[in-house]
Automatic annotation (TrEMBL):
Pfam families: Metallophos_2 (PF12850). Coiled coil: none annotated. This is Metallophosphatase family protein. Residues 1-210 form the Calcineurin-like phosphoesterase domain. Signal peptide: none annotated.
Amino acid sequence: MKTALISDIHANREALTAVLDHARAQGADDFALLGDYVGYGSDPGWVIDQVRALRAAGAVVVAGNHDRSVAEGTHPTMHDDARQAIEWTRSRLDESQLRFLAELPLSDARHDCLYVHANAFDPAGFAYVQGRLEAMRSLHATECRYTFCGHMHEPMLYHLSGTGKAGDFRPQPGVAIPLLPNRQWLVIPGACGQPRDGNPAAGYALFDHDRGELTFQRVPYDVEAAVAALRAANGLPPALGERLAQRLILGR
């Protein structure tokens, strides 16, 4: 079985479309969606409907901080553009879409795998896994062999040996990584709709359960169309479109 691990879509229709098509072409027969379906982007309703359809087909779906903010109210630590995007998003969703976001769990554990948006030690606090210290804390908080989380917007892989030795490395797209069974693993697949590592291509990862292998993927998509949609959206901060456009320029 191959599971496509997708996080931080952020209402980016073009990126999600490209990632779903690519994952299916790679043989993905299952999906795990790690939160932040909304916020920043211009197509929140469309993205939520796709996520709902995947969940109805058996996908793992957990809530991110932007999803909770849309459903419950913005957090005081959010910067102004993010807060404005949350309010704009809420006004574009119907009751069933808002209810769907509100009812999503913060984490889901299945078959020795933990799926969560931010971390295992405090899913509701949405603290970032920024390095080995937070990764070790997260791995110590669960007995699951594999933890899959998003929130950081950059692909990363951490591991913890049976002797307590931690390691990390930045993966290369398209290279299969064997996840040795004598270690715990924390996987951050990167962002589908809002990458922040200098590469504008949409990010996700593919986990082959039978082979115990993980492959990080980058998928080019129509960034120009996503930027145009953001600029045309009445009420979203102009800086959001410019930020996505700038990442495209930096990635060239």
